[in-house]
Amino acid sequence: MSMWYDRMGHCVINEEMLRKAVEEQGPQGRAGRIAKEGGIQYDEVIQLRLEYKKILQIDHLWEFTSLTKLQLNNNSIEKIQGLEKLTNLLWLDLSFNKIKMIEGLEALVKLQTLSLSNNQIPAIEKMDTLEHLEILSLGENVISQIDNVIYLRRFKNLRSLNLARNPICQETNYKIFVVAYLPDLVYLDFRLVDEQTRERALTEINVMTDNELKEKRAMEAQKITEQELQLHKDAFVEYLNGPQLFDSMFADDAEESRLASLPGVPKLLETYPSLCMQIFETGLIQHAERKNEGDSFFTCCREAVSDNQQRAAQIVTDFEESRRQVGFACSLCVTIEFERNISDMVGAFIENVQGIYPLTHYHEKLQEIALATLEKMARNELEEDMPEDMHLLLVDKDTVVKAVSASHDTHQLKIDNREDELMTRINSWMSAMMKSVRHDEEVTRNRKRISEIRNYLEYVRNQLDEIILPEQQ
């Protein structure tokens, strides 16, 4: 077999190339002649050099199962492949090629030395199985992400690393970063790692560890916050565990700044934010009760469905001997009772929320205070000075009533909008729940049972055909 070449003079590994290389690199003189006469056994070859041969593709190496050292440097190889059978390989040199990705090394579990320098590799990856790797050369590639070095922490035996003349070498504190994450390195870029560098790296890794710990704690805190917010949303009471609702009401109230100066109003306002918390706590309690009711119902349904499936399977098995009735997983009365319980819970929650909002009482109290202050002002009985804008407000009864009414309308709009949102969402949730119970799950279960019946009927027909047709013939 002769070597074949492409238009650019490149070639692939073939029988002639391998035979010639083994003969040239094997024993010489009389020992070489004896070996040649006895036939070349590729599975006994320990080392093989295929350098400077313009090889484009790795191939035909599967017989070299005892190979421990393979040199394929200074060729035109574009992809790492064809090495699956070389499981005893300890040394592999693929430097000075055109490789664009680290791959195809999974089977080389004994590999200790790997050279991939002077290629076009952008990332350090896909070497997870190389647990015994001690020396790695990746110099003069296009590795640009300094964090990619962290991937090498998995190689506990790595003592020598070459990353020279990669873009990452331009990073500030490149050497410190690498030694910090790979503290067992002895040589970096062909230079001994000195103690001063190790000490600086140790300090750096401690700082990075602290930062990672802080970041992890922040992420955990963020996750807890998001979980709590999701719970509040599921209970339809998000952002009601504080004064947010009342704050938003007063923020859009043009008259609030003046009305809040009335005697007794500040104290009155202090009593109301806690009512939002009352709604919030009630919502969580009601949500827990609804969830427990739903969990109990669906657990019961699953148990009933499972029991029903077992009974149905037994019925099919004993079909020739007896007929038994298959019950539904969830009877109609249980479904109706569940719907009634959920509906009552939702209604009670809405009624409870509507009863807690104290807007009318607040409006009446505010108007009473304002009118009383107006009368005291008219009789010059006020014990404290009033702001100038308050004097403009307390001109007459109509002006006071209009200001209080305007404030009331602003508050009423906020309350109505939040109440409508709460009722709309909880009613939508209830409707979706009922639809799932009444239709979705039951239809799916029904279709599965029909499919099982059809399959069984088809099976019985086939059995009957096998019995009847031979008799007719």
UniProtKB/TrEMBL annotation:
PROSITE patterns xref list: LRR
Pfam family, one: LRR_9
InterPro entries: Cilia_flagella_integrity (IPR050576), Leu-rich_rpt (IPR001611), Leu-rich_rpt_typical-subtyp (IPR003591), LRR_dom_sf (IPR032675)
Localization (cell): Cytoplasm, Cytoskeleton, Flagellum axoneme
Domain of life from the UniProt record: Eukaryota
Family from the record: Belongs to the DRC3 family.
Protein name: Dynein regulatory complex subunit 3
